[in-house]
Specification:
4-stranded antiparallel beta sheet, 4 helices, alpha+beta
Length: about 100
């Protein structure tokens, strides 16, 4: 069953401020979270470090993409491509902590 519940402000805030250094040093948890709230989850797929998703024209998914774009670290390191129709591809990089 497809759930048409819009993402909450709290969920969008979490996406926009997600810091991989506070989690598992990667963006995999963020991608899994987004997929869990994605309308029509079959259009969001994680394979290894590659994550592809399509908004299917739904405004709730567009709001999630906007939150991902606000996450400068995620967007600058992981964004690979966007195609017409709301199709996105990301590479879920791992962040290496520097040794000081």
């Amino acid at each position: 069953m497809i759930d048409d519940t819009y993402p909450t402000d709290k969920e969008l805030g979490y996406i926009g401020t997600y810091d991989p250094l506070k989690h598992d040093n990667s963006f995999l948890l963020l991608a899994k979270f987004v997929t869990s709230i994605w309308w029509y989850p079959e259009s969001s797929e994680i394979r290894g470090k590659r994550w592809t998703c399509s908004t299917c024209g739904w405004s709730g998914n567009e709001d999630i993409i906007a939150a991902l774009k606000k996450n400068y670290i995620f967007w600058s390191l992981c964004f690979k491509s966007e195609r017409a129709g709301g199709h996105f591809e990301f590479e879920l990089v791992e962040i290496k902590k520097s040794r000081n």
